[in-house]
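Workshop exercise sheet. Pairs work together: one partner reads the sequence aloud, the other fills in the structure field after running the prediction. Swap roles for the next sheet.
Pair: D.N. / O.F.
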Amino acid sequence: MKIHTKIKTLLLVLFTYAGFAQNQTGSNTESNKNVHNANDYKDAKQFEKFKDRKDVVAAWQIKQLREGALVVRLKTNQKVIDGLRAQGKNELALDKEKEQYVINANTMQAFRDKFKFCKVYFMYSNNSDTLLRGTRKGVFLDSNLKVDPAIVMNEKFYLLAEEDYRYNSSIGFVPEDSAKKIVETGNNTQEEGIIIKNKYGHQLKGPFPYSVEEANYMNAVYDVPVSASASPDGKASYTYKVNKTLLAEMESKDRKKTALKNSSGSTVKIKKQYMYEKIAALVDKLDNALFHYYNNTQKFDDSKIEESVKPFLY
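Structure field:
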């Protein structure tokens, strides 16, 4: 009997330890302060009935998006550029401006070519608050990456898309009346080429296909032809035409000839993942994933959504 009791006690200790270990995402010891336990920053209330809610919320979101709009947020890199100018590094600042312009132009063209799931609009990320406050014009960009007051978003429902890190999110499902006050934090898991967020800037949750992983091409960069000149308002005006086959040309047997041809004018170095072909592949993957998930939710009936879930639908 004593041996049997000791075995039971040992098993109890082992199972207790195993259960504790499964709930940890890291150590909070002095030697490893940067690794967080998920329970240290997650509000347990936000994760109540998480498994029951996620399928309903995701199915509702994909249905709304099909009739709504995706707003692609393009970066300006303005803080970096202003910082370089403040240091007197004007030439480097101009290169950064040209680089961001090329990236944004390639991104816009890729979405225009490959994204078919719903209406898509483009804006600079620093106009996000203006859009959230209800403004539906005067923030969207034309094909030259200029704000065009004539572009109006009539769709009521929209989601945001941008390049960003995917989080082991600090937040679960929060009601809309609290969402605008909450800032999402958590551990970065990896950088995504495209990640979809709600209008408050919180990344969506599975099974919604909310992210597309960006490939890592190490230090591969290419000289892309782009020039800049001063416009009447004092801001730089860029001359750049998206070349949908430039990467293929540069990586072909004639890449030396192509490089010589491009070097005849002003160029800027662009990382491989920001070339048109690579961004277009990501957008195409996202579009296919959205259609696939939408088709799998055709039996979803939003008239049967429980009242307790409705505060999370926005």
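Discussion prompt: Confidence is low (pLDDT under 50) at residues 5-40. What would you look at next?
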